[in-house]
Amino acid sequence: MSADGIQPVEFGLDWAFRLGTLRYRRFDGQPVVHVSPVEWQLDPRIIRQAAHDRFYVEIPPPDPGVLSFQFAPHAFPGTPFYDYPSSAPAPSRAQWLMKKIKGADQVWISLQEAKLSRQHVAEFANQGRLGVIREFTDSSDRLMLLSRTANPPPLKLRGFRPGTAKFSTAAILTTMALVIGAGVIGAYTDRVWLPIVSLIIGFPLIVFSIRWMRVVPRSTRAHWLAARFDGSRSVQIHPDVFGFTSDLVAQIAAHYGYFYTAWAKKPNGQPIEMVFVRADAGTSDGTSTNDRTSDTVT
Length: 298
Hints:
Blueprint: H1 13-26, E1 32-35, H2 37-40, H3 44-53, E2 56-59, E3 67-71, H4 91-101, E4 106-110, H5 111-114, H6 118-127, E5 131-137, E6 142-147, H7 165-187, H8 193-211, H9 218-227, E7 234-237, H10 239-242, H11 246-255, E8 258-265, E9 271-278
Antiparallel strand pairs: 1-3, 2-3, 4-6, 5-6, 7-9, 8-9
Helix pairs in contact: 1-11, 7-8
């Protein structure tokens, strides 16, 4: 996911879709995965790298035409998957979770915010008649999607779309306009204190308008992030806006059928946003990954 690494779009969208499908829909935590380089039309070295990135180790294959891998996160240094260390849930956190899932058909939960273990969240969700549909995790956090149905669509945002470049720009410009307006009024009236107060209050407001997303609860941010993958042909997102790692963003994108293709960059080469394209949008030659694989989303 590095902005300086391989840009899949350089090899074509079809190649990027196949790599994304393999990475996030095949190497998705199932115990053993068999991959045919011929069927996937991917270099064995690329397949091995994708397996390594998803914490799989290579094992002897049952057939010379495939590569076989076993899920073995314990074989990698560090702690690859986040789980909140708790032997017993705090009553206040249990109440917080039950309040969120009460009457809801679909809920996003961040374990880092919930301060509950994965097991406890699953147990409380079951009490609320919700199932754990998907989990997205790395060493920074575990995001759990709870739902009453097996394949829920992303929740739609109403009124505004946080996390977009246009929304952030509008917030910054609005804040700056208010500060400048207050300063001008103070300069042309006898309220000489107003420009000073505007500067004192305005600077923190401008900073807040840029970083405001970080004060939003992580579970809410996960919901907003998922809602960005709304069926549009392509979606551009900078992970820092939502405060999640690029890998978590890519995992959520893959769940909704979007795959990372490249980093959009400024003319000077500075990365702006990750570019995701919907797999069923097709490619220049009219093919799509859905025609090449029988993978299912679990």
